[in-house]
Amino acid sequence: MGIRELFFPKKRDFFGMMVAHARKTCEGMGALYEFIQDTTPENGERVDTLEREADELRKHLVTELNSAFITPIDREDIFAMSQAVDDMIDYAKSTVEEVRLFKIEPNNYLVKMIEALSNMSKLIEEAIEKMEKKPLESHELATKAKKAENFIEHRYREGLAELFEAQDVIKTLKYREVYRHLSNAADRGDAVADIIQRVSVKIS
After folding, report:
1. Share of residues in the chain with pLDDT > 90 (%)
2. CB neighbour list of residue 107: distance below 8 Å, 6 or more residues apart
3. Three-class SS of residue 163?
4. What's the pLDDT at 11?
5. Which of 74, 168, 174, 195 is the most buried (most CB within 10 A)?
6. Residue 171, Cβ neighbours under 10 Å: how many?
7. What is the spatial distance between Cα 144 and Cα 119, in angstroms, rounded to a whole number?
């Protein structure tokens, strides 16, 4: 860092970068929902493309974060939030890959979990967008996102229970892997919501 930046730090729009990253992840979750309803190669590639674009947005954010002298909120919170958001779309990509690899036939549990993940990502995007100027609304949206995580976890357990009852070992192993990706994505969304709530309390 040069002397000039020390005294006249470059203004970086970290909230804008976080929103852009969350929005791209939200697009990815929407694309995953389209894919699970119509598992064409084109729909799968759309998820892959959005995951790569989200990665690039996060790389840019982290680069800016590493060189910033001042950040609007704790840099650890920015880093952790962006990591968790990125993990969500990474799990979306893994879901597509294993649905293809294992030749998974979409069922109601998959559709409902992915629909809830898509809705959760929308809430997270909106919560991040409001975090700077409307922290109380941001906190409320994060609370709603956490409720989506609870819904997904319930569907995850119900789906596993049904698989075990069927006593088809190969099918159980295949579907369990895909279910797990969705459960993990929900866990990461819950982690984002926790950070949003914590930051919103600090700002308000």
Report:
1. 90
2. 159, 175
3. helix
4. 73
5. 195
6. 14
7. 10
Side-chain-facing half-sphere of 63: CA atoms under 13 Å: 6
**How far apart are the C-alpha atoms of 49 and 174, rounded to whole Å?**
25
Domains and CATH numbers, the chain: 12-203 (1.20.58.220)
Which of these, 177, 144, 143, 145, lies nearest to 160 by C-alpha position?
A: 177
pLDDT > 70: percent of the chain: 95
Q: What distances in angstroms separate CA 34 from CA 24, 119, 124, 143, 152, one per listed residue?
A: 15, 13, 20, 26, 18
Q: Which of 200, 65, 56 is nearest to 133 (CA)?
A: 200
Instruction: For residue 155, give the amino acid letter.
Output: R
d(CA 57, CA 63): 10
| Burial category of 131 from C-beta neighbours within 10 Å (exposed 0-12, middle 13-18, buried 19 and up) | buried
Q: What are phi and psi of 129, to 5 degrees?
A: -60, -35
Q: What is the pLDDT of residues 157-199, one digit of tens each?
A: 999 999 999 889 999 999 999 999 999 999 999 999 999 999 9
